[in-house]
Amino acid sequence: MRNLLRFIIRYHFVILFIFFETLSLILVVRNNNFQKARVVTYFQSTAGYIYNKIDILTEYLDLQKANQKLAAENTELKNILQRMYRSDEVFFYSEHDTVYRQHYFYTSARIINNSINKQHNFLTLNKGTGVGIKPEMAVISPEGIVGVVKGVSNRFATVISLLNTDLKISGKFKKNDYYGSLFWDGRDYRKVLFREIPYHVDISLGDTVITSGFSTIFPEGILIGTVYDYEVKGGNFYEITVELSTDFKNLDHVSVVSNLQRQEQLELEQLFDND
Amino acid sequence: MINFLYRNIGRFIVLVLIQVLILNNIQFSGYVNPFMYVLFILLLPFETPNWLIILSGFVSGLTIDLFSNTIGMHAFATVFMAFLRPYVLKIIEPHGGYEPGTFPRLYYFGFTWFLRYSIILVFSHHLFLFYIEVFRFTDFFSTLLRVILSVLFSMVIIILSQYFIFRK
Q1: How does residue B119 score in pLDDT terms, banded at 50, 70 and 90?
Q2: Domain membership of residue B139 as a residue range
Q3: Is B29's pLDDT higher than 80?
């Protein structure tokens, strides 16, 4: 303590100088808009740089998990491919042979920002208009659906997460094709509600729910989740709780799906809506 | 002693008024902006304790800031200048030191001494002031030009004041 006092007395001039210079700098930054903006930008870009580095590191550490996911997805794709070959053969000899058209185009992207604890959750992707991502494209992960692209810049895109009470998507049962709408009630990040399934439909726990393909955004048949619980509500309809197959707390690599025939379909539908 | 105090406070008020009312309204082609109020720090007596120099630097800078709406910038520059003052005085000390009863003025130590003394401090003040005002180094040389021109102009005013206003 005494040494500290002696130190302060000995160097009081320099200490006072540093104190007043710091005080002046704080005053400058707090009271002058230009300087404030410069300092804020500087700190933000520094923080962005550091976050980027951390992200690179964690990506490396997660490589094993990513590999496993990719391998699983690969096997799944191979299975689909096999089936495709067989059905192609049949079409080839059909009289009404049509030219094969690509329907969906996949772009891979990484999630660089994510939240699950709000009512309106959004994700940020590391790709944007630069690689052709536009609003209203679907975002899916190897495990299931993730959300819909909302805003894009040149290099980034924001995605309305399925965990956003504003987003409603159309889903159906894999086993019998009855469809309804799915939305999040803002409570548990692992569960969404599935409504508008009529009472007479036969459902049981563990039934698979997939996308219906009606919305022109999601391709048909993307996994959403499995039935976790159901009850009859309001007489004629079930209220079904679906456990999501996607773990939103553990998202990294996703695919952005663009529907190449969406414009055509919308234009046609518009034509009759206007009547 | 009390007399000194009143004279210094009086000089402070006069310099702030001159700076705020007259010199702040002078801006030659956006480049030259003379700052005469630093004379207050220059003319403080030799016996002033170091902490008081820093404090008066901060107070005078902040006062100008309040009038010209640049909170903190002048204070930053003036505190730096006040910090340098004792070292500059030591470096340019004449043979035999500073006699008691003298003040750091042209009248006592001559033109050359005062020019060296004031130009170092005024330059350091202006350098800090202009760079914190632009707050970036991209236009380094155009800012430096403004600093040099303003130093020249401030020096002319300060030297002239030594002959006409603050003789003794």
Answers
A1: very high
A2: 2-164
A3: no
A134 in Cβ contact with A258 (< 8 Å): yes
Window 19-78 of A: residues touching B by CB (8 A cutoff) are: 20-21, 23-32, 34-35, 38
Distance from CA of B52 to the nearest CA of A (A): 10
Which of A15, A20, A42 is the best substitution to test chain B (most B C-beta atoms within 10 A)?
A20
Strand partners, A158: A124, A151
**Any domain includes A173:** yes
Choice among A30-39, B110-119, B146-155 with the minimum mean pLDDT: A30-39
Record the pTM: 0.52
Which two tokens mark A171?
């889903």
CB distance from A268 to chain B under 8 Å? Answer: no
* Residues A142-160 pLDDT 10s: 888 999 998 888 888 889 9
Instruction: Give the distance from residue A6's alpha carbon to the nearest chain B alpha carbon, in angstroms.
Output: 16
Cβ separation of B79 and A25 shorter than 8 Å?
no
Among B13, B79, B4, B7, residue whose Cα is nearest residue B47: B4
Nearest alpha carbon to residue A106 among A79, A65, A64, A73: A73
For residues B83 and A14, what is the distance between their CA atoms, to the nearest angstrom?
Answer: 8
Q: Using the predicted structure, report yes or no on whether residue A89 has a pLDDT greater than 60.
A: no
> Which chain B residues contact residue A36 at CB under 8 A?
none
Of the listed ranges A11-20, A102-111, B70-79, the least confidently predicted one is A102-111
Number of domains in chain B: 1
**Cβ distance of B86 and A13 shorter than 8 Å:** yes
Tokens of A5: 């006092």
pLDDT above 70: residue A274? no
Listed residues A40, A61, A82: the one ending a domain: A61
Per the CB < 8 A criterion, the answer to whether A155 and A273 are in contact is no
What band does A93 get if pLDDT is binned at 50, 70 and 90? very low
Domain coverage including residue A42: 2-61
Q: Return the structure tokens found at A135.
A: 């609003």
A123 within domain boundaries: no
Instruction: Mark yes or no for CB contact B79/A24 under 8 Å.
Output: yes
Q: Is residue A47 part of a domain?
A: yes
Q: In chain B, whose CA is at the least distance from the CA of A27?
A: B72
